[in-house]
Amino acid sequence: xxxxxxxxxLALIDETEVYFGNGLNIxxxxxxxxxxxxxxxxxxxxxxKADREMIxxxxxxxxxxxxxxxxxxxxxxxxxxxxxxxEDDGTIILQRRIMxxxxxxxxxxxxxxxxxxxxxxxxxxxxxxxxEHQSLLSSAKQLEILDDYSGESLFEKKKLLKDCYEQYxxxxxxxxxxxxxxxxxxxxVSLAEFEAAEIEEAKLIPGEDEDLQKSYQKxxxxxxxxxxxxxxxxxxxYDNGGAGDAIGRAIKEIRxxxxxxxxxxxxxxxxxxxxxxxxxYNRAAADYLSEAGFDAKLLNQVEKxxxxxxxxxxxxxxxxxxxxxxxxxxxxxxxxxxxxxxxxQKLQQKENELKTELLKLCDEVSSIRKSSAASLAxxxxxALVDLNFIDVEFEIRLDSSEDRIGADGYDRTDxxxxxxxGEELRALSQVASGGELSRIMLALKTVLADKDExxxxxxxxxDTGISGKTAWKVSEKMGIxxxxxxxxCITHLPQIAAMADTHxxxxxxxxxxxxxxxxxxxxxxxxxxxLARMLGGAEITENVINNAKExxxxxxxxxxx
Length: 561
Prior knowledge:
- The chain is flat, with a radius of gyration of 39 Å.
- The longest helix is centred in the middle third of the chain and has 47 residues.
- By secondary structure, it is of the alpha/beta class.
- The chain is built from 20 helices and 15 strands.
- The chain is about 55% helix and about 20% strand.
- The protein has a six-stranded antiparallel β-sheet, with helices on one face. A six-stranded mixed β-sheet has the order 8-12-13-3-14-15.
């Protein structure tokens, strides 16, 4: 659930923090108080487009921070798969800082991309506004809703269907890419044979290039190496004032006094160890120098071999391993061309087999959908009646066509509705108004509540185009949905506000001669006063207050059923 929202320097907001509760969170306020800014700030934190005009005048940046508490194991597992930081208790802190020309998103203090934020948002929260209501008119969205309702049995079949479809498309792609005439095939064979022969002639050995590069560096720097090693050997030697000579004298001096103090024996031992190590080094250095020397012939051989390898790398891959892998593919290609008719026949046979399997899976998926469609339509009709669609008819039609085969099957979905007696069923896009779409979306969310993993739902403009009894029906439905989800809703209707488990007031005030938007949680009495304001006109009378109290009582009773 969404625990809190912290906003600073955004539009009319100086700085405010709001804590959300379980169940139904209602936000109300006068027109122009800044209700849209609150929902807008949530959208900004979740990756919506931002620009510098949003930053409050005089500020260098705007800040939005959301704190979520995640308890469902399915959600936690998906978030961990994204490798995003999450507290042991399931707390996730999502922050966005908006500055002129750029913005920075962070999750748990770790900077993340906008793409990661949007992916996280899809797990944590579902925001419904007019745009989301309009998406109901899309056949693709309707199919997605039906599939969500169908549940695990369809999910497993769709995974098999998707895998089969991808295999089918790959075989189809191979058939198309290798469809060539005899002349083209001869040219391809000639090129493949040339490239294979060039690689074969090189007789490449994995890792050879790295060894050659080391040898080349040693050879090209041979003179410098020899000079440095000669000086090192001389300075560590036992004549001409070398380190060995100095250590020998030191040993001689310490031995002349060691009998006077047992503690000096340890010093003698250390000098002897040093002398032994230095002697070993000096002999090894002498051996190295005796074998070292500039070998022009070897350098030339190494350079030529590197030239051959680098030439092949420029054509066939960045490493010897890549070149050898390319060579293997050339062999497969040549084998294919040598047995071209047989190869094409096998591909065609595989395509036919996959097409048969694909159609079988499409049919199985379609059957599950048809069964679920009848159940969903029945549940939707009941939910719509509860939302004051009195004489409503609702039907889900599926049209299956092999011409539409895809990763999701071959079905097209149409949600059909009739809201008046005697009217024919028509597609949502032909009959549903904005207010009706809001209610249909709410009905869907109520029906899908048990299947929806997302805990937090935000409804923006859910009350568009409704009033009176319909508004009360919507309010009751939101109360039911709030029993299984956290709901956050902006409304201007008292019927919906009365159902609030947490009632938040958004208001515009003056601070230091500047307009600011603030948000407060209302207690029971203040909530009744706000309902009275929403119910009343210019003057809030005692009767209006009593009406507000009655509305709150009715809402409380409806939650008990």
